[in-house]
Amino acid sequence: MTSATSLLPDLTGSFSSPASGNPTGAMVEAAYVHHGINARYINCEVAPDALADAVAGARATGWIGFNCSLPHKQAIIPLLDELAPSAETIGAVNCVVNRGGRLIGENTDGRGFVAALREIGDPAGKAVTILGAGGAARAIAVELALAGATALHIVNRDAARAEELGGVLADLNRCEVTVEEWIGNAKVSPSSSILVNATSLGLAPDGDSAPAVDWDAVRDGLIVCDVIPNPARTRFLARAEQQGAITLDGRGMLTNQAAINVRLWTGIDPDTAVMRERLDEAIEGWRHPVGGDR
Predict the structure, then answer these.
(1) Is residue 131 over pLDDT 90?
(2) Catalytic residues, which ones?
(3) Percentage of the chain lying above the pLDDT 70 cut
(4) Phi and psi at residue 128, in whole multiples of 5°?
(5) CB within 8 A of 155, min separation 6: which ones?
(6) DSSP 79
(7) 253-262 as b/e: b if 16+ CB within 10 A
(8) Digit-coded pLDDT (tens) for 188-201
(9) Are 128 and 121 in contact (CB under 8 A)?
């Protein structure tokens, strides 16, 4: 990182397509200003056929790091010098760190979720049901296993994809893993203390949608989490609250994920309260859906 008196700021940013509506830049720049970090965050529209050029440009101009979001999380891997262990296990990268000219691929999705979850309940020693088996579900499941969850139950409409994720988790040899095809209302494992919606169901502008769940199994005291940041209180979480569940919205995951990125790039542990306040302002100020660097 350059000194605070340098005329040239350190550069960070995001490569994605579409890039419009990504609130991560607002959060990260708020952290930079709050902590007096001489850096900027540039949200870049990068088409798939331009990804290699974008990475080469970031490397040539000395960016200290960047995020990559859809559709680049797997495609970027061959363009990097090294993968951190979690990114290698998950098979996707959402954060790149420049360490002495070497570009290291990280995945902070699941770590951001676990950090947010720990604010209301530690996953260690708990069984978890996860709805979905896509990118977010994969990152969350891997990090929950590493955080000490005793059992993970994966429910997904594409049975083959659920089985593939189950195999990745089984290879970690950290916890019991079961998978189930999602037919009709998703079943919540009776042993689960935590339920996670890791699908995009409920994301604005389709805020009236919600995962089909066996609500009779959602009991008082169950921790129910949603990865959706917009709206914060999804139909899924509202119904869970009616059942007496403790709920966690997706903005905590997004905030903590961005905070981890800042820490990896600058070495500074940023104030997440400042970042969360700016995230809420950014989302409320936009009328289109936002997904962050997932």
Answers:
(1) yes
(2) 73
(3) 95
(4) -130, 135
(5) 129, 130, 131, 132, 162, 179, 180, 181, 182, 186, 187
(6) G
(7) bbbbbbbbbb
(8) 999 999 999 999 99
(9) no
